[in-house]
Amino acid sequence: MNYRTYIFKLFFRILLLVGAIIGLIYTIYLEKTVYSIVLAVLILYLIGSTYNFVKRRFVAMEDFFEAVKYRDFSRWFPEDRGPKDIRFLYTGFNEINRTIKEINSKNEAQYVYLQKILEMVDIGIIAYNLETGNVLWSNDSFGEILDIPSFKNIKFVENRKPELYNTVFETYHREPNSISIALQNDSIKILISDTVFQVDDDAFKLIVIQDIDNTLNKNESESWKKLLSVMTHEIMNSIAPISSLADTLQRNLQLAIEQPNESHLELEDLNAGIKTIKNRSEGLLQFAKTYRSLSKVTNLNLQRIKISELFGNIQLLMEPSIKAKNINIEFDITPPKLELDIDTHLIEQVLINLILNAVDAVKDQANAEIKVIATQNSNRDLIIKVYDNGSGIPQDILENIFVPFFTSKATGSGIGLSLCKQIMLLHKGRIIVKSIEREGSVFSLVF
């Protein structure tokens, strides 16, 4: 190792110096003047040489520590000149500088990356020193939401808008809190939360705000666009043929009135046309009815019920018609005394929907079978599963089956599974599906 060479050289120089001093004392004792002068000169030389030898290292380290003190990691120490031990030291210093520069470069890149992300979000964020009020960091969204210009100290807000200052900066919101704040021309509702953190001896407060009104308006707008798209598509599919057929019938009827001798109106054709319009109109009304059923479920009437009682009601209602179709249906509860807090009527509706879908899936199977099973897993979640050994659901449509109005059936409305999902969400539960084509499906209600 290089430090061993350094110690050996230093020890050798000290040994020579001690030897020369002993020799000087001995020559003085023998009164050998010439030898004494020579040894005295040699001692002075060895002292100066040893001092410079030690000093070189300390000077090199002092230069490095000075650079560290002022964070000057760009300094380069010459590795190709000077004594070997100093060159080795310089090589180590340069390696440290390179490592620190790489770390700083990565940290700076991460800081810039994080800063850009925070600038792009529409959530207002600010961090400031609790004692001085100096702003550590703030994004543009914070000022835009509160309708205030950029500032370096929160005293600016205190002087301009005292009420806003007290609400946002002085009041603590440990949990996310919805509040209304008055701006110049309007009042907005924001969601605000904050936390205090420590950096060395300084305490900082981080505040996060979000414009609820703006977010809700955007979400509502998107929802309306999607809803209008679906409604327009379905309604136009009904109105277009109704309008076309009505126009045809009106023309034929007009000709029969104006030219009774030349144009004969077939009453059977007229009856068939009117009947078609009636059926299609009823279909349009049914569409509006099913859409209303999807949107009306908003409240729950919770009550504690035994799963055995829930299954008993379903079995009594559906088993006769299912058995008549040569489909075997089984109900099982493990353990048998399971209970659940649910809106019984809504969960019954969910189970009826799932069982009817299962009946439709197994109708062409030789040994058609449906199982309804209730169990409890290790996480204390209660799970009701509806199995069938039917045709299964194609993988390309599996992810869309809970989308409102999506259906793969010729006579389906696309409402049933959407309604099931909405009811489960109201119960703070989940509905999960696993399906393999030509093997069957299992729908799981997780409470």
From TrEMBL:
Segments crossing the lipid bilayer: 7-29, 35-54
Pfam families, alphabetized: HATPase_c (PF02518)
Coiled coil: none
UniProt catalytic activity: ATP + protein L-histidine = ADP + protein N-phospho-L-histidine
Keywords: Kinase, Membrane, Phosphoprotein, Transferase, Transmembrane, Transmembrane helix
UniProt GO molecular function: kinase activity
Annotated Histidine kinase domain residues: 230-447
InterPro entries: HATPase_C_sf, HATPase_dom, His_kinase_dom, Sig_transdc_His_kin-like_C
EC number: 2.7.13.3
PANTHER family noted in UniProt: HYBRID SIGNAL TRANSDUCTION HISTIDINE KINASE C, TWO-COMPONENT HISTIDINE KINASE
Entry protein name: histidine kinase
Organism: Winogradskyella echinorum
